[in-house]
Amino acid sequence: MQQVLEAxxxxxxxxxxxLLKKGEMSAGELGxxxxxxxxxxxxxxxxxxxxxxxxxxxxxQSIHYSINTSVFDDAAQFVISFFQxxxxxxxxxxxx
Length: 96
Known about the structure:
Helix content is 65%, strand content 15%. By secondary structure, the chain is of the alpha+beta class. It has a domain at 2-68: Arc Repressor Mutant, subunit A (Orthogonal Bundle), CATH 1.10.10. It has a three-stranded antiparallel beta sheet. The longest helix has 27 residues, at 69-95.
């Protein structure tokens, strides 16, 4: 979970994920939306892959990226349970 939270903490990586919501894209297609170098784009994609937030499929000379929805489901469950637990603790304190 730490890798997921670290990966989505960066605005560039969040924008990459936002672009991938529309569908699979190659690294080159993604790069057209940013004013960063190829190595920087590669770094951001590596962070997203390490957190399992994106899947990479090689097609000839290019790599196509897509969102790994199962990891997003797990992350959403984590965040929801975190805030539910916090809400329950506050309600217990208030009822004392």
